[in-house]
Amino acid sequence: MDFNKWFNGKINIMKKEILKEKLNYSYAPFSKVKVAALAIDKNGKEYYGVNCENAAYPSGLCAERSALFGSVAYGAEVGSFQEIHIISNLNKLLYPCGACLQVMSQFLDKNAKVILHSTDLLEEKSFLIKDLIPGAVKPEDIMPL
After folding, report:
1. Which residue has the higher pLDDT, 10 or 49?
2. Which one of 21, 53, 64, 140 is the catalytic residue?
3. 61: closest CA among 86, 28, 32?
């Protein structure tokens, strides 16, 4: 048995369990849809986020953006993220919304993975961010000439 492969597998299971536990911290009194995200940067540093709803719906924040925006306060480098994991309480794969995909396109490396998990952790699907939002607005698209 390859110890490193076994050990890394155990670490990944632990990370998924922690991510699943973060669903308990989600604030979703209106939709009841709880979402948690784990963003991992190029140095392996982990940043968690959960969705937070508000009575004025547009004022809420998705878990993916919560994790990524929150990472800035801890010195994370925008554009350096290698993967983001997403889980919800719906026990199916929940895809990120368009706003989250746009933010991910700027925070994640272009070859970074977006990994979706079912609540029971039995189903998982992985995408490259560049495949999920090929026409993302980039900073250079809005810079003055």
Report:
1. 49
2. 64
3. 28
Active-site residue flag, 64 = yes
Domains contained in the chain, number: 1
Q: What is the pTM of this model?
A: 0.91
Q: Residue 10 pLDDT more than 80?
A: no
Can you give the residue range of the structural domain that contains 24?
Answer: 3-142
Largest CA distance in the chain: 58
* Length in residues, the chain: 145
Q: Residues with Cβ < 8 Å from 121, sequence gap 6 or more?
A: 16, 17, 20, 87
Cα-based distances in Å from 40 to 37, 110, 135: 10, 14, 23
From the number of C-beta atoms within 10 Å of its C-beta (0-12, 13-18, 19+), residue 64 rates as: buried
Write the DSSP symbol of residue 23. G
